[in-house]
Amino acid sequence: MNFIGNLIWMLCGGLLSAIGWWIAGVFWCITVVGIPVGLQCFKMSSLSLNPFGKEVVDEGGAVSFLLNIIWLFVSGLELALANLFIGCILCITIIGIPFGKQFFKIAKLSLFPFGARIVRERTIAC
């Protein structure tokens, strides 16, 4: 089921979200100091391509908090607003609600990506 959700997700705007993360990563990698931030953007781009079956776990500390503050003003606000906008549009229809919820998850991650770890959701077998 996750495969089908991720396939439809790419058509409903997931590819645009991933391209936004990728562009932010390229701009951050221009300087040597920004390379760690750019690498984090590339990781988040992979989440934007297939978010179903994954969840975000926060494990941040003091350094992550400082990076998140810098990130928020430089790149995070734009990405978060774009994902929030697409999520709201998708939530207009009942079919789009699961996709909108994934965009909201990525919008939250767009604001504070550092200290976040992406893990697979646990499924309970019957």
TrEMBL record:
It comes from Butyrivibrio hungatei DSM 14810. The chain crosses the membrane at residues 6-35, 80-100. The keyword Transmembrane helix applies. InterPro entries: Inner_membrane_protein, UCP028777, YccF. Pfam families: YccF. It comes from the Bacteria. Keywords: Membrane, Transmembrane, Transmembrane helix. One of its GO terms (cellular component) is plasma membrane. The keyword Transmembrane applies. Residues 4-54, 66-115 form the Inner membrane component domain. This is Uncharacterized membrane protein YccF, DUF307 family. The lineage of its organism: Bacteria, Bacillati, Bacillota, Clostridia, Lachnospirales. Coiled coil: none annotated.
